[in-house]
Amino acid sequence: MRDTLNQGLIDFLKASPTPFHATASLAKRLEAAGYQRLNERDPWAISPNGRYYLTRNDSSIIAVRMGRQSPATGGIRLVGAHTDSPCLKVKPQPELQRQGFLQLGVEVYGGALLAPWFDRDLSLAGRVTFREGGKVESQRVDFKTPIAIIPNLAIHLNRGANDGWAINAQNELPPILAQVPGGERFDFRALLADQLGREHGLNADVVLDYELSFYDTQPAAVVGLNGEFIAGARLDNLLSCYAGLQALLGAEGEETCVLVCTDHEEIGSTSACGADGPMLEQTLQRLVPDQADYVRAIQRSLLVSADNAHGVHPNYPDKHDGNHGPKLNAGPVIKVNSNQRYATNSETAGFFRHLCMAEEVPVQSFVVRSDMGCGSTIGPIIASHLGVRTVDIGLPTFAMHSIRELAGSQDLAHLVKVLSAFYASQELP
């Protein structure tokens, strides 16, 4: 099972270079499992035991498996994750022609580690909005092959590179795509129109706009002397999206279960399709339209907010509290912060720990050092919007927010097992 899950994750990462592609990948797998797509603009006819999903902005997705009884009496088991990762996004007028080279101006999305982006084989993917035959449409694109690179400056010309070099995002990050003859102007939107034709057979009259980002073309892989690790891009947080999907598709309980994977977590979740927007609340209210029943349902529910945790790095052990250094391949991590950067409390942590013990899944704890700031995730945001009890958890990883991250190859199976038990749980605390 472990090897099958890991290969499935590797395939999912390859098919999901952007939140648009990740959402489409999740939707494809849900439809194959019999889930019916809902349109937010249409009336819904929800039935017990029904299986449904919906998307918003093509970059966030909610999947619902209705139970036999009303959520007002049985509650809702929610698992939350996010589809976005730090990256380099192409600017609206990106064309740069300098020293005979074609480059594209980029904007840093999220809290990216920038140094690893240098000297990588990059491709480009995202969503393009265009006009065809007088109609405005949008379509995903993925160039797939390496079309760009950000070369480092040689050490001979940057002697201080190993002494804490501050990267200037405006000047030093534009990737190089090609050499161009002097005086010849390059039209990036014409390139996108050609890509729409090659990839989808579309004949765009004009490319109106786009949301595109660069990504590393090196595929994820199982690495290590004994295959102990998974290395790949966007493990934060497509790893949790994939684990939640596998748990939902394999769960056999009769309770109402929800998987929510939202965009824009890396920049605060404040958007129409982010966790700080109304998407999840509006969806749950339509599933339970009676207001009193809705409040009862929320108070009987629990959210497992799944987002990667910081594993203790052997080269930097002092970055962790001595008693709270999660190890790779030692199971999911319960994340705690007394200032509510995580929404975990003793009751929700205890319930998650109980599930792990019952399933013989190892479990760990993380608290940030008292002299360091703590990150956050969608858990506190959703908890404050819905009033739902929440536990923040995640699998330990290294190099979070790098272009290539590292996780334990045993931990995905651990997380899928405990999330499956959560979805099947008869009673919540």
Automatic annotation (TrEMBL):
InterPro entries: M18_aminopeptidase_2 (IPR022984), Peptidase_M18 (IPR001948), Peptidase_M18_dom2 (IPR023358). Zn(2+) binds at residues 82, 156, 401. SUPFAM superfamilies: Aminopeptidase/glucanase lid domain, Zn-dependent exopeptidases. Its cofactor is Zn(2+). It is an enzyme of class 3 (hydrolase). Its EC number is 3.4.11.-. One of its GO terms (molecular function) is aminopeptidase activity. Keywords: Aminopeptidase, Hydrolase, Metal-binding, Metalloprotease, Protease, Zinc. Belongs to the peptidase M18 family. HAMAP family: Aminopeptidase_M18_2. This is Probable M18 family aminopeptidase 2. It comes from Pseudomonas typographi.
